[in-house]
Design goal:
The complex is a heterodimer. Chain A is an alpha+beta fold. Among the domains of chain A are: 204 residues, PAS domain (Beta-Lactamase, 2-Layer Sandwich), CATH 3.30.450; 175 residues, Histidine kinase-like ATPase, C-terminal domain (Heat Shock Protein 90). Chain A is 61% helix and 14% strand. In chain A, the strands form 3 sheets. Chain A has a 5-stranded antiparallel β-sheet, sandwiched between helices. A 5-stranded mixed β-sheet of chain A has the order 7-9-10-12-11. The longest helix of chain A has 102 residues. By secondary structure, chain B is of the alpha/beta class. In chain B, helix 2 crosses helix 4, helix 4 crosses helix 5 and helix 6 packs across helix 12. Chain B starts with a helix and ends with a helix. The chains are: A alpha+beta, B alpha/beta. Chains A and B meet through helix 2 and helix 3 of A and helix 1 and helix 7 of B.
Chain lengths: 578, 330
């Protein structure tokens, strides 16, 4: 590979590393994963470095050992061969070296040189051109002339040689070659073991790293979980870290923070609840104020209306009484006039023509006949005016705050009298059928005016509902199923407390689902905008429940009409009887 | 093999070789002059003989004189086993190799019947024969030669050009009992009129008119001493001279060659019955006739064959005795 290519490759490698680094930065990894990776890397690097160091140390130790063995062997050979070498006892030297030949796996070569450096014997005792040489061997010459041991690593052997001399006089030299195969094999084994350990290190390293990372990150994860719980608003669980290190201190601080937060939050919630209660109270008070205001307004209106009606009734009642009271006299007088006319006719057969003409002109017989009818009609009319006035006086009892012992049926009938014109047929619908199922009710101590207002509200709502319901129906349908309001009363002496129950039932559309819950809420109305104030039922509910300690409820289902049930306790009427 | 094992082997080998060297020293010290004495030989025989006693009637025992008994026994034993296996008809069922440190001991062991067969060059064979009554029955072609002589040589670059130049110098001989390394060259030089004087070492001073000599104890050492210029010349057997690589031989100068003598003789103990001697003789003569026999002979120190003693063996022995007398005078 050329230098340029190498450079490009290196740049490419660097870019690759940078890309990897950026990707590493981009991707979100858990701390445990990162720690596992780092610790695994550290373990692998440590094992690798240790193995390399071990191999190097083993190599040095093995070389040192081989060197020491060479020295020991040279010492032994020197002791053994120095005398034979001095004698140049080649037979001994060759026998000796020949004896060593069997150990060639360890001793790869061995040579004995005389003082001139000639080879005298070697391991092979090879006579051809080696032994019995006239000329000196360069190695032998060098060894014979040196004063120290010469070591040389060559191929698969270590050559060690030294001069054999006594008192500065060299007798010759010896050189041995020790096989380094065992050393190489040993180093190869060590290297292979090292590589094996390096290869296996991830198997041990990864679980160890995972364990270590878990050991480190578990408290952090607990802390993270605690933080998440805290973020979700769970202040009940604290972080438990028993490591007794900085993390446990951090966890303790965290827990203290959680406890303080929890206390503050509790305080805040309490304050919030108090504030909410106060708000509710204020709201309720405001509602009550508005209701009271409305009631006052209504009461004032009704009072004014009552006074007006009472005044009108009183004022109308007197003239009507005059008319009604004098009608009898008028009837009597008319009877006397008729008897007189009859006497005239009986006594005077021949009437003057002018009189006869006048009789004919005024059609006296018709007058005689019609006058009776007129008088009867006037009698009926004045009676009816008197009833109306009576009803107006009954209804105008709204302003009466005191309780009275009254007949409930009178209140109902007075209300019906007022609403009589609404029950009659109109252009949009036929007349609303009214069914009264009055029971035998005792007199009831109550506030008659407000109670009549309740009946007015309930009956008006029933009429409104039936009118609204009639708009979508055909005349035939209206004929088959006429609009009906049924008023039922009954006495429940065995109830607790004994009470009278008034049910006002219509066969209108019924109350829609969901509306029932808010039915008695102030300002809630299902009527079109501008038609209802939403206060009728609310006021009625307060009148029944607060003023009379009774119950106001309803039964309704879509398409099956609505029945309002008024339940009023029957209290003792003794004091009122008196 | 690890270092410890190696060192153990080395120590054992060293001990073995050292013992051999010590034996050599003892031999040299005890036999400055051959003075055969059966009584003395008998006294010396026992410590060196084989450790386990075998029935001499059914065992054929081969013997040799050496400083390296293990090596000898290793070389001789297969040959001895073969002889025993082939001599069952004569009542031989077993074989043994025994080594003696010197001539006297060998003679004693032969005389006592401890050793049946003994192989050596003419000079020691003659001495042993005189001492023990052993008789030569065949010639042995050791190292492939039937006869040999001594070569006195020096380095070609030496200032010794002739035997005359050896005066005042030291010549290396092999051993006191060596035929080619002592008897023949010593007798040769003496017959040439040289005055010889044994020296304690190669560095010893030598009178101008005298040829000094030392024993190197080995032919190879003699060669080395010449090459090393430790001695002026050396005398070795012709077959050993031929072992010198040609390249080195070319750089040597031959100063003299002695007369030839049989390479080795097969000596038989007088205790061996005649029918066994005849069986042994016949067996040895036929060994080189088969491949298996040749291989056996080759392992037996490269012996080419055994043959009958030359017709002039009597004359040879007489000449040998003459030379022996010359040496004995030395």
């Amino acid at each position: 590979m050329s230098g340029e290519h190498k450079l490009l490759r290196q740049i490419s490698d660097i870019s690759w590393i940078k890309r990897l680094g950026k990707r590493w930065d981009r991707e979100r990894r858990s701390l445990s994963f990162k720690l596992t990776l780092i610790i695994t890397g550290i373990i692998a690097t440590s094992v690798g470095t240790t193995t390399l160091f071990y191999i190097d140390r083993e190599q040095k130790a093995a070389r040192l050992e081989l060197k020491e063995e060479a020295y020991l062997l040279l010492d032994t050979l020197q002791i053994s061969l120095q005398d034979p070498l001095y004698r140049l006892d080649s037979d001994f030297l060759r026998d000796f070296m020949g004896a060593l030949k069997d150990n060639q796996s360890f001793l790869t070569s061995g040579s004995v040189y005389d003082a001139q450096g000639r080879l005298v014997a070697n391991l092979e005792n090879d006579y051809d051109d080696v032994i019995f040489s006239v000329n000196a061997d360069p190695v032998g010459q060098k060894l014979a002339q040196t004063s120290s041991t010469i070591l040389e690593w060559r191929g698969n052997q270590m050559l060690a040689g030294r001069s054999i001399s006594v008192g500065g006089q060299s007798f010759g030299a010896i050189q041995i070659g020790l096989s380094t195969r065992a050393l190489s094999q040993k180093l190869t084994d060590v290297r292979n073991r090292g590589l094996g350990i390096i290869a296996l290190s991830p198997l041990i390293g990864i679980p160890l790293a995972q364990w270590l990372s878990l050991f480190i990150t578990k408290p952090i994860q607990n802390l993270v979980k605690g933080t998440r719980r805290l973020a979700k608003g769970n202040f009940d669980e604290l972080v438990a870290i028993e490591t007794k290190d900085e993390l446990s201190v951090l966890a303790q601080s965290f827990n203290q923070m959680v406890i303080r937060l929890r206390e503050n939050l509790t305080l805040l919630e309490t304050n919030n609840q108090d504030l909410e209660k106060q708000t509710q109270t204020l709201t309720r008070t405001l509602m009550e104020l508005r209701e009271t205001q409305e009631q006052l307004i209504q009461s004032e209106k009704m009072s004014s209306l009552g006074q007006l009606v009472a005044g009108i009734a009183h004022e109308v009642n007197n003239p009507v009484n005059f008319v009604h009271g004098n009608l009898q006299y008028l009837h009597d007088y008319w009877g006397s006039a008729l008897e007189l006319i009859s006497l005239y006719e009986d006594n005077f057969t021949e009437l003057p023509p002018e009189l006869q003409q006048e009789i004919e002109d005024i059609d006296l017989p018709f007058i005689q006949e019609d006058m009776e009818k007129i008088l009867n009609s006037m009698d009926l009319g004045t009676l009816r005016i008197r009833d109306i006035v009576l009803s107006l006086r009954n209804f105008s009892r709204l302003d009466e705050a005191i309780q009275k012992c009254v007949d409930i049926h009178d209140g109902i009938d007075s209300t019906l009298m007022i609403l009589h014109h609404r029950l009659k047929a109109s252009s949009d619908r036929p007349e609303i059928q009214l069914q009264k199922n009055y029971g035998d009710l005792p007199l009831v101590v109550c506030h008659p005016g407000p109670l009549n207002q309740v009946f007015m509200n309930l009956l008006s709502n029933a009429i409104d509902a039936l009118e609204e319901f009639s708009r979508g129906r055909s005349p035939q349908d209206l004929k088959r199923h006429p609009n009906t309001i049924e008023i039922s009363t009954k006495h429940c002496p065995d109830a607790t407390p004994p009470s009278v129950v008034i049910e006002i039932q219509d066969n209108g559309p019924g109350i829609k689902d969901g509306a029932g819950l808010k039915l008695f809420d102030p300002f809630f109305t299902t009527k079109p905008v501008g038609k209802g104030t939403g206060l009728g039922l609310s006021i009625s509910y307060r009148i029944i429940t607060d003023q009379h300690q009774g119950k106001l409820d309803y039964r309704s289902a879509p398409g099956e009409g609505t029945t309002f049930v008024v339940e009023i306790p029957v209290m003792g009427t003794e004091e009122f009887d008196a | 093999m690890n270092f410890k094992t190696f060192m153990f082997a080395l120590t054992a080998g060293l001990a073995s070789i050292t013992v051999a060297a010590c034996s050599t020293s003892e031999q040299g010290a005890s036999s400055p002059v051959v003075d055969p004495s059966p009584a003395v030989a008998a006294e010396k025989s026992s410590p060196v003989a084989a450790a386990v006693a075998k029935d001499p009637e059914t065992t054929i025992t081969l013997g040799d004189i050496t400083n390296n008994p293990v090596k000898k026994i290793r070389r001789y034993k297969p040959f001895a086993d073969h002889l025993a296996s082939q001599l069952k008809a004569t009542g031989i069922t077993d074989s043994e190799v025994k080594v003696a440190p010197d001539l006297e001991t060998m003679a004693s062991m032969i005389a006592s019947g401890e050793i049946d067969l003994y192989f050596d060059s003419p000079f020691p064979a003659m001495v042993v024969s005189d001492l023990s009554g052993a008789k030569p029955i065949l010639r042995r072609w050791k190292k492939g030669v039937g006869s040999y002589h001594t070569i006195i040589f020096t380095r070609a670059d030496s200032d010794v050009k002739t035997l005359e130049d050896l005066k005042g110098k030291v010549v290396a001989f092999d051993d006191r009992v060596s035929t080619s390394g002592y008897m023949l060259p010593l007798a040769h030089l003496k017959e040439k009129g040289f005055s010889l004087s044994e020296k304690a070492s190669a560095q010893s001073s030598v009178e101008d008119e005298t040829v000094g000599y030392v024993f190197s104890k080995d032919d190879d050492s003699s060669i080395e001493w010449v090459l090393n210029k430790r001695v002026g010349a050396a005398a070795i057997g012709s077959s050993d001279f031929l072992d010198i690589p040609p390249k080195t031989r070319d750089q040597l100068r031959i100063l003299a060659k002695t007369e030839s003598v049989p390479r080795q003789l097969v000596m038989v103990s007088p205790a061996v019955p005649p029918e066994q001697i005849e069986a042994i003789r016949k067996l040895l003569l036929t060994l080189d006739k088969s491949e298996k026999g040749k291989q056996l002979l080759q392992g037996f120190e490269k012996t080419a064959k055994f043959d009958a003693l030359p017709k002039a063996s009597d004359q040879s022995f007489a000449r040998m005795r003459e030379l022996y007398e010359l040496v004995k005078e030395q």
